[in-house]
Design brief:
By secondary structure, the protein is of the alpha/beta class. The chain has 21 helices and 12 strands. The chain folds into 2 domains: 276 residues, 3-Layer(aba) Sandwich (Rossmann fold); 198 residues, N-(1-d-carboxylethyl)-l-norvaline Dehydrogenase, domain 2 (Orthogonal Bundle), CATH 1.10.1040. The chain is 49% helix and 12% strand. The model has no long low-confidence stretch (mean pLDDT 97). The protein binds D-mannonic acid. The site of D-mannonic acid has 10 residues, from helix 11 and helix 15. The site of D-mannonic acid (CS2) has 10 residues, from helix 11 and helix 15.
Length: 484
């Protein structure tokens, strides 16, 4: 199929394909998004597409890729159009999304992206740059030695990091007398708005005390909880979409029907009136975010490492393995005990998670979830583990999840599995130490367990020793049996 999806061909798509029914030529950019990966395209862009369809035409998205040109090369020839496939056991539903007006590639022309962010019509800059995109140290503060941070301060106006782009654009707006945008983090970090605000303020201070004060006093960084499972697109997904559309879509995204986005309502410059089911504007996102990070993402990471060790390659396969399932159930009990009493029903959330994780039609790869464990595990597993230990509560499933990570790292160092990590070399070396107790201690030290490190080590190292002695499969069975 050589014909490409684009504006001209929208009208001729088969009737079953949902598509923008609004006049895209009338849509103006109101949002710049940093990090135009599959998640953004199946999440925020879908909600914005709904707003545009409802006639709120000032909120089109200019999306930017901070690294590779791949998404731009796929989407710009399609006038920004692409397909979202909602997939479950009942089949696939196809919808062409029109919210992204164009895609920029930041490294090719950083000044163009800064200019797009400084446009007075842009009132929101949202981000999905993954955990490591926040250029933090493991204690959560700005990594002032990070090469991108040093670069961005030295070569102002041609940034590389997300913080560099935000600060340069805010400085340009300030100079032009344009009010700041709201910075909207859509990454899986605890208190992502406050986290972003603290990092951005520090970065701005390093530029000038004046910019630091401006960011602290004037820039809203709204927190959000984002929740939708979006596996990486495969070639067979592409082929299937091309068949359904009758034209080529170079980069569709496939997701589950579930959709949730809880947003702290702090938009001094205005915001779209999003009515998408699953979107909630609230005063305090924290209870939603803790529940999601600890129950969904915590279970995901547990399934990733235990599942890989058990020989599975995707979430549904791992989740239907009775041993992995028992571990996840135990983790849910332990992590739910750490959640604030805010009226949210964590049992109901876990019951829905069980259905979502069991979605066999969605082949969500464990290597994808296992990637960047050193950035993910602190908030997903180590923090609730620490809280349980400090309160004298049970934490053995949480500790086992960390032991599985270490065991998976050890095998990753021998060339097995495909997950990556910004600290992979160091982690695989630490994990391979002959003394399991030393391996556990050194790796736990990276996870921020504070005064509970020794107590955590006392739970993690016996599991690691068991894995080394009996092999992963037998060890996981023993740990699972004990957790039931
Ligand atoms: C996953 C998340 O890859 C991962 O680490 O745990 O991307 C997860 O699918 C989303 O947060 C679901 O909302």
């Amino acid at each position: 199929m050589t014909e490409r999806l684009d504006t001209q061909r929208l009208a001729a798509l088969p009737a079953a394909i949902l598509r923008p029914a609004y006049d895209r030529a009338a849509v103006r950019p109101g949002i710049v998004h940093l990090g135009v990966g599959a998640f953004h395209r199946a999440h925020e862009a879908v909600a914005i597409d709904d707003c545009l369809a409802a006639g709120d035409s000032g909120w089109g998205i200019v999306a930017a890729s901070l690294r590779s040109p791949d998404t731009r090369d796929a989407l710009n020839p399609q006038d920004g159009l692409y397909t979202v496939v909602d997939r479950d056991s009942e089949g696939d539903r196809f919808r062409v999304i029109g919210a992204i007006l164009r895609v920029l590639v930041a490294p090719e022309d950083p000044a163009a992206l800064v200019a797009a962010m400084a446009d007075p019509n842009v009132r929101i800059v949202s981000l999905t740059v993954t955990e490591k995109g926040y250029t933090r140290r493991s204690d959560g503060t700005l990594d002032e030695d990070h090469p991108d941070i040093r670069h961005d301060l030295a070569e102002w106006g041609r940034p590389r990091s997300a913080l560099g782009f935000l600060a340069a654009a805010l400085e340009a707006r300030k100079a032009a007398g344009v009010p700041p945008f709201t910075a909207l983090s859509c990454d899986n970090l605890p208190s992502n708005g406050a986290t972003l605000k603290a990092l951005l303020t520090r970065f701005a201070e390093l530029r000038s005390p004046e910019l630091g004060t401006y960011v602290r006093d004037k820039v809203a960084c709204s927190s959000t909880m984002v929740d939708r499972i979006v596996p990486a697109t495969t070639d067979s997904d592409r082929a299937l979409v091309d068949d359904a559309l009758g034209v080529t879509d170079a980069w569709p995204v496939v997701t589950e029907p579930y959709y949730s986005w809880v947003i702290e309502d702090d938009f001094p410059a205005g915001r779209p009136d999003i009515r998408t089911p699953g979107v909630l504007f609230v005063e305090d996102v924290a209870p939603y975010e803790l529940m999601k990070l600890r129950l969904l993402n915590g279970a995901h990471s547990t399934l990733a490492y235990a599942g890989l060790l058990l020989g599975h390659d995707n979430v549904a396969a791992a989740f239907t393995d009775p041993d992995a399932r028992a571990l996840v159930d135990a983790l849910w009990r332990e992590s739910a005990a750490t959640l604030p009493d805010a009226g949210l029903d964590s049992d109901d959330y876990c019951a829905r998670l069980a259905i979502r994780f069991g979605n066999r039609a969605l082949r969500h790869k464990l290597d994808q979830i296992g990637t960047d464990g050193s950035e993910k595990l602190p908030q997903r597993i180590a923090m609730p583990l620490r809280e349980n230990l400090a309160a004298g509560r049970k934490a053995s499933a949480q500790a086992s999840a960390i032991a599985f990570w270490i065991a998976a790292l050890e095998r990753r160092g021998k060339g097995e599995f495909a997950f990556t990590d910004p600290r992979l070399d160091r982690l695989t070396t630490l994990a391979a130490q002959a003394d399991a107790n030393a391996a556990a201690g050194d790796i736990l030290a990276l996870l921020g367990l504070g005064d509970q490190l020794e107590a955590a080590r006392a739970l993690v190292s016996p599991v690691l020793e068991l894995i080394r002695r009996e092999g992963a499969r037998a060890a996981i069975r023993t740990v699972a049996a004990a957790s039931r």
